[in-house]
Specification:
about 100 residues, mainly alpha, about 75% helix, globular
Length: about 100
Amino acid sequence: MKTNGAILRVAFELVNAERQDDYGPPADSMARIASLWTAYLNRPVSAKDVCLMLAMLKIAREAHAHKPDNLLDAAGYIGLAGDLAQTEPQKGKAI
């Protein structure tokens, strides 16, 4: 029987170990990026926004050509966005 979610398990390991060792706690890293993007865009950008936009970058790359890293990183960014949604104030944006 095939086990689903293999990429999610690997993404979980990366955001909780290897990537964290390389870049520090995800919330801190995303907050630093958000600060830079906020200054550059001259509009507020949250750490959760950073995660979602980086996931979209990976999805755009995957639309061009499949590379396992695209999907792995997108899954990790989405997971981190979910974590940050628990701690960041909600903007109340409607789509």
